[in-house]
Amino acid sequence: MRAPVAVMLLAATTAPLVLDTHVVRRDSSATSFEVALGGADYADITRGCEGGIIDKDRRHIRERGLSVTHEFTGPLVLGIRATEVTRTHYDGLESRYWRYNPHVALEKDHFGAGLGWFTDDSGMWDEDLPPISAHLRFGNPREAPAAVFSMFEDVPAYSPAGAAFLGLAYEPRPWLQARAGMGFGTPYDQPGAAVRCRVLLPHGLAVGAAFRGGASQGINENGLAVSLGWTMVHKRTEVRETMSEAREDSAMRADELKELR
To answer: Containing domain of residue 117, as a range?
Structure first.
């Protein structure tokens, strides 16, 4: 099994450093939809008890994913992610499975944290570990680069970075969201550089792309993903309904009628 234990240890030791790039709107709620396609090559390494390499092979996965997220007017965020992963095995045969990930998060301007649970029967992660997704953010990416850590939260699930990502998120322009750092864990054997950009378009649309690059034992471990999203904003409306405001309006109308007479 490739380094999922290391990923969990990394999460525990780096938790004070890190999130997700979303900062919740204060004057409105929003519902976001996203679809994504991805693929990756990775090294399948078999090691002996003393760490020596017994066998190595190049493998491939294809992914298609989707997510639905609702950001409330306060810090609460609810959503679900799903990814279909197709694995190519050494004999050329393919296996296909779905990975589902309901999640909840609390996002404030300079801090955010999320937690979720996922189903995964692929055998690509250590089943002795709890199937938990999570993220932490310290800082506001709209103001300056923010420290981010996420684990099992990408859409699609694996090709953009691997099981986990640690790095910086930044929004240098109102229409541009970016992150850069390192990707770790399943299905990749070794860590690799990971970058992701998202461009916001008119009418709530957004397009994104992610790339992960690395190598292990002479085998390239590269991943690529693209995405298309749409956000529907639910604006709050202020309705005057206090008795004092109603009385003031009535009095003003009465005065106007007297003047006309």
So the answer is: 4-260
